[in-house]
Design a protein that fits this description.
The complex is a heterodimer of chains A (about 170) and B (about 100). With about 170 residues, chain A is mostly helical. Chain A contains seven helices and no strands. The longest helix of chain A has 26 residues. The radius of gyration of chain A is 21 Å and the shape is extended. Chain B has about 100 residues and is mostly helical. Chain B is built from three helices and no strands. The longest helix of chain B has about 30 residues. In chain B, about 50% of the residues are buried. The chains are: A mainly alpha (about 170), B mainly alpha (about 100). The interface between A and B is large, with 84 and 75 residues.
């Protein structure tokens, strides 16, 4: 049964990711991104990372995609900008996609992976919340504090960026 | 579950490749940003898969940090895009060529 769910959710995720890239409408692309993130959260659930699945839906779907939709609505870039893709852009993106895909295929088909049963049995699972807290407050205490400062700096930066500077001369 | 780690890594790499192709293909800055987010999420999927199959927690904890950085990055990036739109009235990357020549 988990195998079926894996195929289901991975196909769903990949299709929605293609929807993000190929959709001409920015709002539809954002909705496809939302669905794709839900698919990734479902894959997290299959990997026993329940907390991360919930966090992904909360942070990405709740905050990031909502912010994207808000900005799309604010900027209103829909009208008259749907020009066809340039051939060089199509070539570059197809080549980049094909290169990365062939690399992934080589990795999966020729790489030496550990025996499945043994590695799964060894996993203590990421479903225990206590282990997250233990690592975050012991081994990764300094990165947690740096993250706090990073969020503070980002907040200050956004405030400065969105401020109107009346006295500043126009550099355009 | 009989699905091995290679399947998860393949899905992650495929998601990353789609995001990469999207960054090169699209001209709308907002969609390019969405593709960047897709690449970040693909990397988190690889982290969680490795962590789960290795039986360690470090990858899962790293996903926390990636989520935090992604949230901060989106806030700053969208603020830059709004500031850019205010000044230039466009978000298409091929029209933002002030540094060309």
């Amino acid at each position: 049964m988990p195998d079926l769910f894996f195929y289901l959710f991975s196909i769903f995720t990949i299709l929605c990711a293609f929807g993000v890239v190929l959709n001409r409408n920015t709002v539809n692309a954002a909705i496809c991104l939302l669905l794709s993130l839900f698919g990734v959260a479902a894959l997290f659930t299959l990997l026993d990372a329940y907390l991360l699945a919930v966090l992904l839906v909360l942070v990405y779907a709740g905050a990031v995609v909502a912010l994207f939709l808000f900005i799309v609505m604010l900027l209103d870039t829909q009208g008259g900008h749907n020009r066809p893709f340039k051939p060089v852009a199509i070539f570059a993106s197809t080549a980049g996609f094909a290169l990365l895909l062939s690399g992934a295929l080589m990795l999966v088909t020729r790489g030496e992976w550990p025996a499945h049963a043994a590695s799964v049995a060894a996993a203590p699972t990421g479903s225990v919340l206590k282990s997250y807290a233990e690592l975050l407050f012991t081994t990764y205490l300094l990165p947690v504090q740096i993250m706090g400062f990073l969020l503070l700096i980002a907040m200050l930066g956004v405030i400065v960026l969105c401020k109107k500077f009346e006295g500043l001369e126009d550099v355009k | 579950m009989t699905i091995g780690i290679d399947a998860f890594i393949f899905i992650s790499a495929l998601l990353f490749a789609i995001g990469f192709g999207g960054v090169l293909l699209r001209k709308n800055t907002l969609v390019i940003y969405m593709c960047l987010e897709l690449m970040l999420v693909a990397s988190t999927l690889a982290f969680v898969a490795f962590s789960s199959f290795n039986g360690t927690m470090d990858g899962n904890v790293f996903v926390f940090f990636i989520l935090t950085v992604a949230a901060a990055e989106v806030a700053v990036g969208l603020a830059i895009i709004v500031a850019l739109f205010r000044r230039r009235q466009t978000v298409q990357v091929d029209q933002l060529n002030a540094l060309k020549n």
